[in-house]
Specification:
Layout (H helix, E strand, L loop, with lengths): L1 H18 L4 H9 L14 H26 L1
Helix pairs in contact: 1-3
Length: 73
């Protein structure tokens, strides 16, 4: 039962990570010396905030399930 739940959480985590917007423009700007807002205080809003919170929750669930499965076997 826990293994099936771990697979579901893993697939959901992959999908949510792929749905998030990329931050590569900020990283490239920082490395090339172009003016960037990499260190500016920018808050996530809307769907980005929701996806970030879902990713954190799924990540925690993944590690908890992995530990529980390992301790059970």
């Amino acid at each position: 039962m826990l293994k099936i739940l771990l697979i579901i959480v893993s697939v959901a985590l992959i999908i949510v990570c792929l749905l998030q917007t990329g931050k590569t423009e900020d990283i490239v700007s920082a490395l090339t010396g172009q003016s960037s807002n990499l260190f500016a205080q920018q808050k996530e809003r809307g769907i980005d905030l929701v996806l970030t919170r879902i990713t954190i929750g799924l990540g925690i669930a993944f590690f908890v399930l992995a530990i529980l499965i390992r301790m059970g076997s």
